[in-house]
Amino acid sequence: MKVERKELIVIGAGPAGLSAAIEAASHGVKATVFDENARPGGQLFKQIHKFFGSKEHKAKIRGFRIGEDLLKEAEEKGVEVILNATVIGLYKEKEVQVQIGTEVYHYKGDAILVATGAAENMVNFRGWTLPGVIGAGAAQTMMNLYHVKPGERILMLGTGNVGLVVSYQLMQAGCKVVALADAAPRIGGYGVHASKLARCGVPFYLSHTIKEAEGTDCVTGVTIAQVDDHFRFIPGTEKHFDVDTICVAVGLSPMAQLLKMDGVEMADTRGGYIPKCDETGATSIPGIYAAGDVAGIEEASSAMIEGRMSGAAIAEYLGYMTGEEKSSREEELDHSLEALRQGMFAPKNRGRKIEKTEEGIDISETLLTKGYIADDEIKRFPGYRYEVKIHPVIECTQNIPCNPCQTACRKGCISIGDNITSLPISVKGSECVDCGMCVASCSGQAIFLVKENEDEGTAEITIPYEFLPLPEVGDKGSALSRSGQKICEAEITRVRTSKAYDGTNLVTMKVPTAFEDSARFFIKA
Amino acid sequence: MLDIQEKLKEIGPYVPEEDDDLLVCRCEEVTKGEIRKAVHGGITTIEELRRFLRCGMGLCQGQTCGTLTRRLVARELHVPQSEIDVATSRSPMRPLAMETAGNDLGNEEKQ
Amino acid sequence: MERIKNHPILGASPAGKLVDFYYDGKKLQGYEGEPIAMALRVNGIMIHRYTAKRHEPRGVFCAIGRCTDCVMVVDGQPNVRTCITPLREGMKVQTQYGATADPDFGAAKKGKGGATV
Questions:
Q1: Does this complex have an ipTM over 0.90?
Q2: For residue A103, which residues of chain B lie inside 8 Å, CB to CB?
Q3: Cβ of B29 and C62 within 8 Å?
Q4: What percent of chain A has pLDDT over 70?
């Protein structure tokens, strides 16, 4: 038997763990990261959508690219990453048991950071064990890592950001999403994510949940039904769908078993069963830290900053930084983290119904229940403006911490101001030059360029487009409304693809002027 | 601590429910009905349930059913979920072959 | 289920090396190094095992090695998590009944009380 001493042991090479190791290493700490998977990066490599936030949070960059950058940085900083290494035990004396291959190794860390992330929650319904019922994370793993379609026809249970984002990714992978259901009465995730689905015609069933997954050997169908305020099924409200796959996205729980094992003080909170820790992730046992989802479910962007904060705190704990240096670094990071924790979807607002925006505008009720903004609601938001000349219409109606559109426009057509959660304003009198950068930089795909051709009674609408096949100039078809209804004929007049757009193509369609405020998607005839 | 006698009086006898045959623990195939019956028989902690029914003791170690079981026990006992302690964590946290568990000399051999 | 050949964000799928493997004695093909479960899925195989008590079919559920629902008998070893075990040429993958590859000893026959782990 032998035990090896390490300076810092990080458990989990996801966004939090890697960020912490990088930060600690940059102050001189020798950091070792164990991860049970064959490749590092945690869930980042399954995130193919553009992130929200501001530049410092890597907004408008797709998750997997952030993952690549983190790995590169870890390598540059000399972080040791040991893969296929499963931590199976952690003790209060900071002993770590690691299974590598068919052997068990023992290490002792001067400091330990637990960054084990989260596990998916589940609900049990009749048939939930049938092959074909999968977690939303499983779907992401199959399609985004291994290029395998999870199914052909899919029902998504859950309308939080995971349910919404994965549904969209399923469509990008070429699957048909037949519907999204959620037992809650309102869509839980960002309205902009829901709108991307709604305008493709995907229906939302709120206050509905799965009654039964049908099939003998695997899923062949699903029945959902409406539930009352006590989540009991209402007879006669059943709806059946032919599907081969049911995806479950009903939230995440911190994977805090290792922390519980080592004996740190734990707390049952709305963010899950988590260790009691300060803002740097220091737990009740000196030298044991926690960062990322394991310390409370948030976004990957917050996990990366939390990791950095823990990394700095650990550097101080190990004597590589003075208290003063640590405080100043912490302050800097805290500022950045706090920015992400603002707005309607902030952790402090979890479960609360918000009726008005920070600007005092009524939230779109249709957006919360059907996934799109009704035609008569859009005009009350500051992102909407009428003009004949080309201009951006920004359909961003909830206060979320995100501002790449403001910096994308060099002509000052879009204004958010210093408060990152403020709704973007389409600035009156500004001169849009049709560069399309705002459309491509909006992680929520909520910006459209609109112009009228007065002489011919038509309008041209530029939409973000992230599907294949890409429409071609001259293609004729139908324009779809925000709710995904065919509303008029449309013809493609321009298609733009550019490295700067990073996968978000710009498709311009021509429609009769009467539909310039409602046509938001295109389907080829 | 719950006063089990008082609690059992309060929640009344076990009454079958239509979906009692629904699985809660996928690995050990423990049903909702089995857990409910156990609760009404006086088993009120996750630890006891694990010993008695083996729910959460299978290959995945309660990764999937842990929360479901807690929620069910809390509902049955008419208490908030936070009053039901989560299961004790023990090594190994992932399924491990007995052969590997016995192979505790890794470091020595590598030196 | 199909493979995704061209993805709007990820582009063309990387070309892998196709290798033969055996599923319950039947020769199938998959990419070397991809999880066994992926190779099975593109071959249309959804059932990985039958459970010990209720003899119910199970397949991939979490796809990241946590839930252990996708375990099969691989090269004679039971309880192998196929969603995280890379495919190798010539691998023998078998449906798991209870804890074995033997439907009679394991769990295929209702009421027979198959082996439990």
A1: yes
A2: 100, 103-106, 109
A3: no
A4: 100
